[in-house]
Amino acid sequence: LIAFMAMASCLSVVVSGHLRQIPAGGLPCELFALGIATKLRVGSNSTAKASSDFGRMVTAAPEAVLHPSTPADIAELVRFSASSPSPFPVAPRGQGHSARGQSLAGGGVVVDMRALASRCGHVNVSAGGATASPYVDAGGEQLWADVLRATLEHGLAPRVWTDYLHITVAGTLSNAGIGGQAFRHGPQISNVLELDVITGNGDMVTCSRDKDADLFFAVLGGLGQFGIITRARIGLEPAPKRVRWVRIAYSDVATFTRDQELLISKQAREAGFDYVEGQVQLNRTLTEGPESTPFFSSTDIGRLAGLASKYMTGTIYFIEGAIYYNESTAISVDQKLRSVLDQLNFEKDFLFTKDVSYVQFLDRVREEERVLRSIGLWDVPHPWLNLFVPRSRILDFDAGVLKGVFADANPVGVILMYPMNRDMWDDRMTAVAGDDDVFYLVGLLRSAVVADDVEQLERENEAVLAFCVNEGIGCKQYLPHYVSRDEWQRHFGDKWSRVAELKAKYDPHGILSPGQKIFSSPA
Ligand code: FAD
Question: What is the annotated signal peptide range for this record (predicted)?
Fold first, then answer.
């Protein structure tokens, strides 16, 4: 044995005068002879970045990261793995804003989808006309913030938004994409008209409700299991210019949920708020949390803490609502707001309003990100737990979790609680909705400020899940994370056999998105 030469992650080894290539990692050497070889990065700088995610709870290092120039590059990679005698995992990664390693590919290849944005990325708007409805064709790698910017140039915008816009189109469509407009228009996946997908066999397929519908429905909410989305066609509506943004406080959970459900009911869908969410401030949050927030001034927080102290549980709930308007409807916005508020039973004098541009409203979490970054609370572990809780058990959940398990919980983070209508979800899609005709998202979005917090927060999360099981609450995880096949089967329920069948059809080697840990993967 005479010499070693490093060629990507293969070693060229000269043995007795003959050049032989052996893989230095788990990837086959032939991979580095493909046309995409120059776009594969194996250096630790690249692989380290793709080894973790926003959650900072899981790490898994890939052998290489692909920086594709076109969707065809991704297809070449997937086709190679699928036809290799030893297939390796491939995970498309958007912004890597998952919390539990869902975009990782230990021992395989991560596809940095964002590389497409700078090379061939696109957001093309079709403004529609007398007979056609407007839509946008957006690369799966695009950030929702960029989709917003491009569509607004045409006075248009998608109907449903996640709270945070600096995540990718395909990353949210792989889950569902929910927010305060979902009660009216369904999750983002309900607003998709067509997709370009690279399957786990490396085939490039354009699919819709009418063409290759099984792939279309599989991929929406499909947790990256059936294909890599490279383009999504999404319906648009005329964009408003401004938003009247309100928060109203409640001390009683039954009144809070009754009012929320009124606001998302059929009659309110016609004439009420355009956006409905809700938050919970636990006992200690108002006294030990930040002195002010981008929404509440320190005076507001002081008043709210005073309100909380009047009640034994100290828990305060907010409905967050928004009414969209523009020049022609500005004159009636106050009247509309008054007529909506007149039907509600919030704490007198605890109405907080802001008037902001549509972009400021949609991009509001960016401001919170800036604040959190400035105090070192953004790049910390996020043991988040999101649950869909059926309407019929939300009060039990409140009593057992928010006033039980969390009675003394760490106040750092946000707790979301808002209802959605199940009839706006399409059961043919892989995404799993909550039970009951109305179900709540309860987002336990807490941060671990010091390392010890992680264990404590995880213990509390486990206690929450145990409570849900023991009390038969019927919770479903959103952005799900399970470790066993049984749990995944329970999660998908009636959908499981279909999910397994479609996986066998579209990703028979189990290559795609192994970080979800649903199926066995090759590595
Ligand atoms: P990644 O984390 O990169 O990927 C997520 C999954 O999708 C992985 O399994 C990955 O392999 C797969 N994937 C990525 N790209 C593709 C592709 N092109 N084709 C197929 N599969 C792909 N969610 C909501 O619904 N509503 C909210 O309001 C909301 N707010 C959030 C706020 C913050 C601050 C954060 C951090 C997250 C929030 N989320 C919300 C969750 C977010 O939607 C998901 O974590 C989403 O997956 C993040 O997108 P991403 O681009 O970072 O995806």
Answer: 1-16
